Amino acid sequence: MEVATRLTWMQEKKLQNYFGEKQFSLLYKASVHGFSTDRLLQICSNQGPTLTVIYSEDQIVGAYMQKDYGEGNYLIAVFVFQETTITECKVGPFKLPMLFDKNVDGNLEVSIHLKEKTMYFNKKAMEKLGLSQIYISFQDCEVFRCEDLLDERKMSGLTELKESLLCAIRNYIPYGGLVHKVRILLLGPVGAGKSSFFNSVRSIFRGHVTNQALVGSDPTGTSEKYRTYFIKDGKDNNTLPFILCDTMGLSEKEGLDMDDIPYILEGHFPDKYQFNSLKLRPKGIGNHTGCPLLKDRIHCVAFVFSANSVGQLSHEMVEKIKRIRRELIKSDVVHVVLLTHVDTLDLITKGDLIDVYKCVPVKLQLEAVHRKLGFALSDIFVVSNYTSEWELEPVIDVLILSALKEMLRAADDFLENFPLEKTGACQEVHEYANSGESGDSAFGLRHILSIDNEHIRFTKGTKPMKKHKGCPGPIVTESVLVKQSVTSGGPDSFMKLPMKDQTLNHED
Ligand SMILES: Nc1nc2c(ncn2[C@@H]2O[C@H](COP(=O)(O)OP(=O)(O)O)[C@@H](O)[C@H]2O)c(=O)[nH]1
Ligand SMILES: [Mg+2]
């Protein structure tokens, strides 16, 4: 049976951080292994640094030993832990096992008598530690092995995990090859860390910390532009199979206009589109990209919230987010949540990021998001963005890459369920071809020579299609427009219709 500590998560964390970001493994517990010094020394020798914790009625006291019991004379850090405060005083130097020697009363500043369940402090130590008596009686005593949270073994495990995530993301092919790159929309309150997330992803694939997107520059977020970011893999020209779309932040009064959201989702806004706070959004296509294709639309939405403020989202903001969620559910867009700023939560250190979902303050925030906004716990991913670091850290990279991988999965779910007929592709091509529209018809489909289930043949020199009547309307898949192949093709340029199980060789 596993022996459990009496320390609460918060107490353990506080001690871990206090003694230099250590991880504790419980070695000995007097109430289980016996109140015997011999037994304690037998179990706890040759274990490296240890922390001894004594539980009295109303406080926790103890000793941190930086060296092994078997070694020479050393100083010991004795501490008293009351409520949230740790008071420490150094005692010694002496041989560490002497701490448990009953016969040294008066010779040492502090000693622990297991059999009698008492701990002794001389007057000086008592005063330094703010205690009111020289003897404390206790109920239990525990000894922990203390290891660095991020030791070499863990670091090499993290590096391996990072490499496998990088490999999975680089080799990702969107579902059915329906598009070449999936578009992930980052949506969330001003200051949540959307732009920082893009910068962090870019940094990881660049191999060093970089900042392309402007971060935290405009607290109102009102002058922001819509940005669609391609990300290069390393320094070569290959771009990765996803595009991060960074929006103006949501806010109670100003910020992103809710009416813009369907346009963003359908892919009407070009890169650098200036959000129009005057609501002069032109009807139809106007300023927006002519006719969005399946590749232009959003395939996954990542809501971004800061872990240290998600609990305080206003009622208006919560309602806004719920409205957007309803819109997404209506249009079958799969969405996830990114919880940023996790590094700023109380007691969380870099080492905790290894097992971040087990940390109590993180769990509390996950539950708050779930309760307040209704997102499933399994759809919430925790990250710490690169904001002040100079160098990449595998532990941060792994969190960001894991979240990104989940977003690609979500995009695949969307593509898998996206009804092909909804793209309007096959139907429209047939309709136009059969309607006999000629001259400057919207798509110049008079240039189609023939259509079968797999190919559309065009006459030489067909112009790229510019306009689509009725836009914004049904989305046309990328293959129908075939800009490049039509203009540069031979007498009978042809392209494949977008069958779900086919991979289209089309350059963006
Ligand atoms: N400590 C910490 N700061 C962050 C994190 N993400 C963003 N920030 C900071 O939060 C502020 C707002 O970030 P920004 O990316 O501009 O938010 P946006 O408005 O959602 O694009 C900036 O000062 C960032 O440096 C994070 O994960 N941890
Ligand atoms: Mg931003």
Structural summary, described in words:
- With 508 residues, the protein is of the alpha+beta class.
- It folds into three domains: 9-148, no CATH class; 152-415, P-loop containing nucleotide triphosphate hydrolases (Rossmann fold, 3-Layer(aba) Sandwich), CATH 3.40.50.300; 421-496, no CATH class.
- The protein is built from 13 helices and 18 strands.
- The strands form three sheets. Strands 1, 2, 3, 4, 5, 6, 7 and 8 form an eight-stranded antiparallel beta sheet that branches. A seven-stranded mixed beta sheet has the order 12-10-11-9-13-14-15, with helices on both faces.
- Helix 5 runs parallel beside helix 10 (394-417) and helix 6 packs across helix 10 (394-417).
- The chain is elongated, with a radius of gyration of 31 Å.
- Residues 282-289 and 424-508 have low confidence and may be disordered.
